[in-house]
């Protein structure tokens, strides 16, 4: 039996998370740039994201590029982050900061707002936000493990 497409109908379209289906659903690299730009704009604008914003540099140019490149490969598109910056472990990288549930939820809230601003199929928007919860939770766990143990490095 063929896989169901994103809209639940039988189709040759691969389901999200298979091949580059998620990357394509996000609009490719241009769509990801729009998503990331909206994400960081919301982080700048939302008072409730001030603590999250404070963890980022004043100039978000590099952050924007890194998140766009990461999402490209993570969603099944070109592995631009690895090509430009090398490999990364999201939890280990983010463990350098004291990230708690509140910061993770702030990040996810900004991302949910940015996703809502895109012209995504509703099923993809839901799928993407659900998938992004996984690395957000892993970053919290890694950060808590590092900072509880008294090992700040």
Task: Give the N-to-C terminal Cα separation.
Answer: 50 Å
Taken as a percent bin, the fraction of beta residues is under 5%
Coarse structural class: mainly alpha
* CATH topology descriptor: Globin-like
Number of helices: 8
Tally of individual domains: 1
| Helical content class | 55-70%
| SSE sequence, one letter per element | HHHHHHHH
In CATH, the architecture is Orthogonal Bundle
Query: Under the CATH scheme, which class?
Result: Mainly Alpha
Assembly state of the chains shown? single chain
Overall shape = globular
The counted number of beta strands is 0
- Specify the biggest β-sheet: none
Which stretches are low in confidence, meaning pLDDT under 50 for 5 or more residues running? 1-5
CATH level-four homologous superfamily name: Globins
Describe this structure in words.
This protein is mainly alpha-helical and about 150 residues long. The relative contact order is 0.15. Helix 2 (about 30-45) crosses helix 4, helix 2 (about 30-45) crosses helix 7 and helix 7 (about 100-115) packs antiparallel against helix 8 (about 120-150). The chain has a single domain (about 20-150), classed as Globins (Globin-like). The protein starts with 20 loop residues before the first helix and ends in a 5-residue tail after the last helix. The protein contains eight helices and no strands. The radius of gyration is 16 Å and the shape is globular.
């Amino acid at each position: 039996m063929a896989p169901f497409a994103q809209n639940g109908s039988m189709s040759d379209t691969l389901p999200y998370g298979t091949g580059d289906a998620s990357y394509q659903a996000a609009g490719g690299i241009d769509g990801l740039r729009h998503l990331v730009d909206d994400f960081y704009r919301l982080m700048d604008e939302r008072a409730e994201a001030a603590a999250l914003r404070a963890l980022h540099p004043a100039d978000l140019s590099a952050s924007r590029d890194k998140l766009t490149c990461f999402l490209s490969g993570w969603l099944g598109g070109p592995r631009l982050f690895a090509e430009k910056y090398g490999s990364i472990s999201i939890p280990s990288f983010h463990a350098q900061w004291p990230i708690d549930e509140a910061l993770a939820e702030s990040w996810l809230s900004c991302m949910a707002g940015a996703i809502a601003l895109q012209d995504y199929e509703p099923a993809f928007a839901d799928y993407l936000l659900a998938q992004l919860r996984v690395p957000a939770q892993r970053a919290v766990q890694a950060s808590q493990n590092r900072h509880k143990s008294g090992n700040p490095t």
